Amino acid sequence: MSTDYRQAIQDKGTSALLSMLDEVESGRQLAAWPPGRAFEHIILRAFDIEGAEVTWPYSVPLEGVLIEQIDGAVHLDNLHCLIEAKDRDETQGVEPVAKLRNQIMRRPASTIGLVFTTSQYSIPAKMLTRMMNPLSILLWEYQELRQAVEEKTMCRSLKTKFKYAVERRMPDYNVRKELR
Asked: What tens digit of pLDDT does each residue of 110-158 get?
């Protein structure tokens, strides 16, 4: 089924992605897309447009039992990222961060996580990402995602966020400051 969603978004350009993002952010249900599915595909397609290697949503079985569902992965230069996309109207709590951290802990040490939301992160979620050792998750809020899609700077934004995480321990650095 995820192949159908991939095919449905594969031909979409930046303006179509922006329209879809606006609909998702407003809380409207996109026709033919289950809740949350469009948001994760928009993110992946934005990276794909810019030439990053993308792995579309997939499941991880262990001895025939489903143990993980991953919203996608992005590989850019030496950055290898698992994606967690949360399409919600409420402020994001710690659950998506904790879930992704557990998934990352089962991967090579160089793996990082990217959590995207259509809302904002709670103070506890930001504190959890700042206190992680090692710091392995970067937070993206809707407005910075939207601007990066619009300006086709997803890859540059990822590198900037990673740079600030390395240099200043800021996993929630807002790249909109850099993109202006």
From this structure: 999 999 999 888 898 899 999 988 999 999 999 999 999 999 999 999 9
Question: Please, are residues 32 and 20 in contact by the beta-carbon 8 Å criterion?
Answer: no
Would the CA dihedral through 21, 27, 28, 32 be positive or negative? Answer: positive
Q: What domains, with CATH codes, occur in the chain?
A: 2-179 (3.40.1350.10)
* CB 18, CB 24: distance < 8 Å: no
pLDDT tens digit sequence for 6-48: 999 999 999 999 999 999 988 887 888 988 899 999 999 999 9
Tokens of 143: 């407005």
Q: Where are the alpha helices (DSSP H) in 1-54?
A: 2-10, 14-26, 37-49
Task: Say if strands 79-86 and 111-117 run parallel, antiparallel, or are unpaired.
Answer: parallel
Contacts of 13 (CB under 8 A, 6+ apart): 49
Q: How far apart are CA 61 and CA 69, in angstroms?
A: 9
Long-range contact set of residues 26-32: C-beta below 8 Å, sequence gap at least 24: 27/89, 32/8
Q: What is the pTM of this model?
A: 0.93
DSSP code at position 165 = H
Q: Which of 78, 104, 98 is nearest to 86 (CA)?
A: 98
